């Protein structure tokens, strides 16, 4: 009997440890509750936070997908805050989060910060891609969760036909409803800002370009670089064309012969470059995190701004905490929901 009680206690301790916050990563971080934002006149009815997707999905909703982990949690909360603050229909946005660990902690944290937020956390199994990942120039790019966006058509309910995918290191300063309504003409399955002045060939190795059976993949395509941190995805068309399987095939080939260098981006380019619907550049002012080696400060690209994206090595929260912010990090700070380590009593 005693052995049975000890075994039960050990099991409970293991379960608690699996769901606890990883203190080595979050330390004593505490977030404040976000303001409540309300729909404007003419919006669809607000979603009940307890609503779960079933066999039918309301077509009037905006579905947003993001990966979620502890290391980037502060960035994710700021991103959500910015989306809600600038949306004309914030109560009609449904969030789909992909997480591979600490889902209980993440779920309770989001619920405490955004008590009225309709969301669901979809578990992502790292083993789906762990054996397909090849090392790249920065370890952070090799996390299995970076590849989860390729599996959205499988992980989200089949009734979700369109989703806006967003990285965790960005903020919106415009209405996400406008981005979500981006036309995706047939046969494209996704829309994103394209950058045709980028050095596209640099994303692939000389081995790739020297092999005619590989380089022919881009024949007849005006292949341009696009950043996968901001995408509007037609999931129905994606499923029909089996694009997840096509991405996996390129990743499997990469394990046998090195044909690219930079994490999860090149497989997307191999499948989609030159085959996407273009989005105005204002929806992804990317590269604000600097390059992937030194994270140097960068300026905005010319033109209007609807979304600021700190892709690259440097993250605004890290630079602010270190006392070495870049000028544009001041634009991220107002959306930060982290509580000060030492609250100041303004009445004293």
UniProtKB/TrEMBL annotation:
<dbReference type="Pfam" id="PF01501">
    <property type="entry name" value="Glyco_transf_8"/>
</dbReference>
<keyword id="KW-0328">Glycosyltransferase</keyword>
<keyword id="KW-0808">Transferase</keyword>
<protein>
    <recommendedName>
        <fullName>Hexosyltransferase</fullName>
        <ecNumber>2.4.1.-</ecNumber>
    </recommendedName>
</protein>
<keyword id="KW-0732">Signal</keyword>
<dbReference type="InterPro" id="IPR029044">
    <property type="entry name" value="Nucleotide-diphossugar_trans"/>
</dbReference>
<comment type="pathway">
    <text>Glycan metabolism; pectin biosynthesis.</text>
</comment>
<dbReference type="InterPro" id="IPR050748">
    <property type="entry name" value="Glycosyltrans_8_dom-fam"/>
</dbReference>
<dbReference type="InterPro" id="IPR002495">
    <property type="entry name" value="Glyco_trans_8"/>
</dbReference>
<comment type="similarity">
    <text>Belongs to the glycosyltransferase 8 family.</text>
</comment>
<feature type="signal peptide">
    <location>
        <begin position="1"/>
        <end position="20"/>
    </location>
</feature>
